[in-house]
């Protein structure tokens, strides 16, 4: 078991999400940064679908009530075991009564804690991912207990580590593709999309990121249509909303761009005030 001593601000259980219930309005949900989450699982030999702890903005304290193997990937929140700094992207053996802490971010916005065998909380509609209205809770709270598997043999520790390029966290360029309504934009609007440096507004969460920065918008209203994580919507005010993992399944704003999968992962590591720039895969 892992006991939550302090949950921090935005800490939840996530796996790769739900993908078979869009027709009844259930969002995909799942880890915001799939690259970092899958890397953490891979390093300790888990399945890609195994559930992890997703921590946003830090200040989280966890008590291990049994021995296990962990790996931490993604942002750097100065993770410590028993007050001793530990490495990111490395397989680490933790013992019973060890305390794992996460401080405020040094860089990045989300960190992933993988545990050998995955977090064994209940599945709802085939996934352990927290989502308000689907699961009993949306965030971890103090004194929550997270079931984990017994470690059969400490020799299972793989002593694996991976050196990754920090650009995944810090790079501001987001690869995008033209969305369904892209061709309705004027040449000037398309040029603005490619050249304006946008800022992440304070209105950002698992559902979507609103951007600071405006372009002219004279597009006609449209019927509600399907949207996906990574869909970039242009609002009547000329501002952008980038939908993220917890987004609704339909929307009524023009879908001018679609982020690549890796761009969604990169954006998940951005915080208020960070800059981004759209890089179109196909210049039109």
From TrEMBL:
Residues 23-283 form the Carboxyltransferase domain. SMART domains: AHS2. InterPro entries: CT_A_B, Cyclophilin-like_dom_sf, PxpC. The keyword Acyltransferase does not apply. Keywords: ATP-binding, Hydrolase, Nucleotide-binding. It comes from the Bacteria. Coiled coil: none annotated. This is Biotin-dependent carboxyltransferase family protein. It comes from Aureibaculum flavum.
